[in-house]
Amino acid sequence: THFGFETVPETEKAKRVYKVFENVAQKYDTMNDAMSLGIHRLWKDMLLHAMHPQPGVRLLDVAGGTGDIAFRFLEYVRFQQERQKRRTVQSMQTPSWEDISNNYSTEDEDAPQESRAVVCDINKEMLRVGKQKADSMGTRAGLSWVVGDAEELPFDDDQFDIYTIAFGIRNVTHIDQALQEALRVLKPGGRFMCLEFSKVTNPVLARLYDAYSFQMIPVLGEVIAGDWKSYQYLVESIRKFPDQEEFKLMIEEAGFYCVKYYNLTGGVVALHSGFKL
Ligand code: SAM
């Protein structure tokens, strides 16, 4: 845990973003459920499904906030690990009790084999809430919390197998700089994955979505978190973010290969993926 140093945001946008998440941190999870009608959970599950991480993988979750992606990652890896153990045991023709107990060794039950998830966020408050959540869930071997800026990550080169950023990149001031940093900290062969609000493709859904977000989201923000402005900012930042194709191009320009995207919920959210070769 590195709560030791302060990251002081320099630009106006960065200051604003910092204040927004400082204000909403405590209510952040509740707001996410209320505003997305719980659907953000499915989007995050889909990210994990597409990632399909295996035991031993190292994840960096940037703008990781209260840790949703990292929790899901560790859970998924643990599940894979259990499955592999079960398969190994089943494939043994005449297993002795010794074989079985070796394969069912409970030594590491809490820690996915060498899998690590690092949650990195510029906002100490968001991380504090996430860490509390981890403690109350009795987790988390393999998890660490680091204060850091997506534009200047406090990690060495070639460290991670997977870099994720979920609903975070639109808050970053220089997206190209954040993409460069993602490329730098990934190992060759590593994967970049980003969940972000995007452009709704179906015109009917687009109209409904516009009405909902412009009119309802600031109201919910006021009612639940007592903070209209932060949630108005949220809606505006979604509108300003590049659409699926533009963002794909930016990822390619940063130097990633095999860049693809998938629309979720008709393009309300897009999942972009690319590889460092
Ligand atoms: N990934 C989490 C999730 O999906 O629930 C949190 C997303 S939240 C909408 C956006 C997060 O981005 C906030 O926690 C905020 O502090 C963080 N953030 C904003 N600018 C950042 C930056 N430059 N570097 C790192 N994190 C940043």
From TrEMBL:
EC category name: transferase
One Gene Ontology term of the molecular function aspect: 2-methoxy-6-polyprenyl-1,4-benzoquinol methyltransferase activity
EC numbers, comma separated: 2.1.1.201
Stretches for region Disordered: 85-112
Record keywords: Membrane, Methyltransferase, Mitochondrion, Mitochondrion inner membrane, S-adenosyl-L-methionine, Transferase, Ubiquinone biosynthesis
Pathway entry: Cofactor biosynthesis; ubiquinone biosynthesis
Keyword presence, Repeat: no
Compositionally biased spans, kind Polar residues: 89-105
Membrane topology of the entry: Peripheral membrane protein
Subcellular compartments: Mitochondrion inner membrane
Residue positions binding S-adenosyl-L-methionine: T66, D121, D149, A150
Entry GO terms, CC: extrinsic component of mitochondrial inner membrane
Principal location class: mitochondrion
Catalytic activity line of the entry: a 2-methoxy-6-(all-trans-polyprenyl)benzene-1,4-diol + S-adenosyl-L-methionine = a 5-methoxy-2-methyl-3-(all-trans-polyprenyl)benzene-1,4-diol + S-adenosyl-L-homocysteine + H(+)
Parts of the chain that traverse the membrane: none
GO biological process: methylation
Protein function: Methyltransferase required for the conversion of 2-polyprenyl-6-methoxy-1,4-benzoquinol (DDMQH2) to 2-polyprenyl-3-methyl-6-methoxy-1,4-benzoquinol (DMQH2).
Family: Belongs to the class I-like SAM-binding methyltransferase superfamily. MenG/UbiE family.
Oligomeric and partner information: Component of a multi-subunit COQ enzyme complex, composed of at least COQ3, COQ4, COQ5, COQ6, COQ7 and COQ9. Interacts with PYURF; the interaction is direct, stabilizes COQ5 protein and associates PYURF with COQ enzyme complex.
Name of the molecule in the record: 2-methoxy-6-polyprenyl-1,4-benzoquinol methylase, mitochondrial
The species this protein was found in: Cottoperca gobio
Lineage, highest ranks first: Eukaryota, Metazoa, Chordata, Craniata, Vertebrata
Encoding gene per record: coq5
Complete-protein stretch covered: 65 to 341 of 341
